[in-house]
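User: Predict the structure for this protein chain, please.
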Amino acid sequence: MAQLRDFRTVDGERILAEVAETNNLTSTTLAHVKAFLSGVFRFAKRRGVLNSENPMREVVLPKGNAAGDTYAYSLEEITQMLNVLPEPAATVVAAAAFTGVRRGELRGFLWQNYDGEQIFVSQSYWRSHVDEPKTKKSRAPVPVIAHLAERINLHRKLSGNPVAGLMFVSPFGKPMNLDALVRASIRPVLVKASLTWHGWHAFRRGLASNLNRLGIDDSIIQAILRHSDVALTQRCYIKTVRSDAMAGDGRFGAFLEICT
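Assistant: Here is the predicted structure, written as structure tokens:
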């Protein structure tokens, strides 16, 4: 392994090629490995350990395995969940479904960043560690539709009408543990209702897909999800369906009415 100061782009490509050759990884996972290594060098530059350009920037990813199908919740599934889930799980799910934020950002929602019409995303939690959002583009407000605003306002009332602090907290005053919430309050209820849990990120994909089905321009969906590149939104987050199936589904008309 080359010393940090001597690390070159060719070293990064060699490492990724070795990882791809010895592990059964998808192209998406390899991109995450590259992003992690790039973050290491950004930190090294900030600490003064590295004075050159980030050597991972120009690294070309090796070919990985094709990613399996990812899931996007439909509006019907979201509505069914909200009809059976207890509080505060229902409000947390609604926030995930109708803002499309990442799970770490959801855990970092602050009351002082909510004005009734939008929530400013200023932080993200990974376990107990707080950090800034993923990218500069991510540090931005997300719109709050009327249906979600009603739920958040009820949640605020049930929480004692706080004006500041975390919106979703654990019994110990820490950021809510979303995995624990799933185990205790979400998955058991969904199983009884014959509904399937596909994870938190499926809400982010679901929002993109549902808005796309409504005919919302991809650039607007990109802005709502706070992606730096509209191509990422189109490639990874919008799950298309047959147009004839869409035409016969009046639920999306109801969703459009909620959004407007």
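Confidence is low (pLDDT under 50) at residues 232-253.
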